[in-house]
Design brief:
By secondary structure, the protein is mostly helical. It has 7 helices and no strands. Helix 4 packs across helix 7 and helix 6 packs across helix 7. The N and C termini lie far apart (70 Å). Bound molecules: heme C. The site of heme C has 27 residues, from helix 4, helix 5, helix 6 and helix 7.
């Protein structure tokens, strides 16, 4: 490497280090029309994509106790004491951190009965995010 190349390489390094972070950011990826179409197709009612994904999971794993809309009227609800609460009107269900804890660690982790099972080992963090989003969506307009 010649002295000139070394000097200009050093100059480039110094110059790029001095650039503000905003100028070095890479451009956002181009919009993906196919992905947007798939997401639009998968939307459930007036729910966002994440909330809709949460609803699918809720119907599969939770509705047997909680009922599809979280009213505590699932097929198994009458066997439970305490019964599953009405999530849409529950004050607790407006707190995302609380929802995440109950869903991940089970209701026992919040000092309640152990009847709501822990899902942290059987569902992914992404699936739990979707379930939190759905429970929050159930409380929308019910404040
Ligand atoms: C076997 C029945 C059962 C299943 C399955 C179940 N739950 Fe529960 N859940 C309950 C009961 C009963 C309670 C009330 C516990 C208490 O108050 O001690 C509860 C409480 C909760 C609460 C607290 C609500 C509040 O207002 O404090 C949340 C949130 C919740 N469950 C979410 C879920 C989600 C999400 C799933 C599915 C991934 C699920 N549960 C599956 C029975 C169940």
């Amino acid at each position: 490497m010649t002295g000139l190349t070394v000097r200009s390489t050093a100059a480039i390094l110094i110059f790029s280090a001095a650039l503000p972070a905003g100028c070095r950011r890479t451009a956002p990826p181009p919009a993906d029309a196919l992905l947007d179409t798939i997401r639009a197709d998968e939307r459930v009612g007036n729910l966002s994509y994440s909330e809709g994904q949460g609803k699918h999971l809720f119907v599969q794993y939770c509705a047997t106790c909680h009922g599809e809309e979280g009213h505590g009227d699932g097929q198994n609800a009458s066997n439970l004491n305490p019964p599953p609460p009405d999530i849409p009107t529950s004050k607790n269900a407006r707190d995302a951190a609380y929802l995440r804890r109950v869903i991940t660690q089970g209701s026992a982790a919040t000092g309640r009965s152990p009847l709501s099972p822990p899902w942290g080992r059987s569902l992914s963090a992404q699936q739990i995010d979707y379930l939190v989003a759905y429970c929050e969506a159930l409380t929308r307009g019910k404040r």
